[in-house]
Amino acid sequence: MRDLVAQSGSPIVPGQRILDFGCASGRMIRYFEDVAGRCEIWGVDINAEHITWCQQHLSPPFNFATTTTFPHLPFEDRSFDLIYCGSVFTHIADLADFWLLKLKRIARENARLYIIIHDNHSMELLLSGAAGPAWLSDMLREFVERSGVSDGTFTMFTINRGPNSAQVFYDIDYIRRHWGRHFRIHSITQEAYGKQTAVLLGR
Fold first, then answer.
1. Do 89 and 106 lie in a common domain?
2. Which residues does the UniProt record annotate as the domain Methyltransferase type (predicted)?
3. Statement: the pTM of the whole predicted model exceeds 0.90
4. How many CA atoms lie within 13 A of 68 on its CB side?
5. Helices 134-147, 120-128: crossing angle, 10 deg rounding
6. What does the pLDDT average to over 28-46?
């Protein structure tokens, strides 16, 4: 991720503010320890247990706050230079656009947003058995057979819908058109996060 962000012309420099949106138990934020003394770095998540653990074990140098499933973030407008979401929009079945615009609100001018999604390529990997887990491959295969959805015939769909279990898939051309209305799209990188695709946006 950091290489892609730097290659887009926005390397991490001292004084920046960075947000891990959906930090869970700190699986990604902990790799920013080398810049934590020079940058202000926050992690937020809807799981209070994860945040409590992070506050106990990773703070300092990082800062953490619990959020909710309703699109609200406790930060001022144009607060962050880098916002990243590791496998978060993959699970937002509803209000994804609302959340995207919330992230735009708190992104500074020329900020970067690094967002991981399931896309057409992710579907291909799952349906072919080249990527797992097996239960998701089986569920996706059943959905595709039942619905008739195939590559290029959808904008987005959700399977296994639930508050903590939804699996959302996007057509990558839809992402280019729809997200491209609000951001510059710097790059789209397949298999950047396991089977998932990384979309790097600029404000």
1. yes
2. 19-114
3. yes
4. 4
5. 110
6. 97
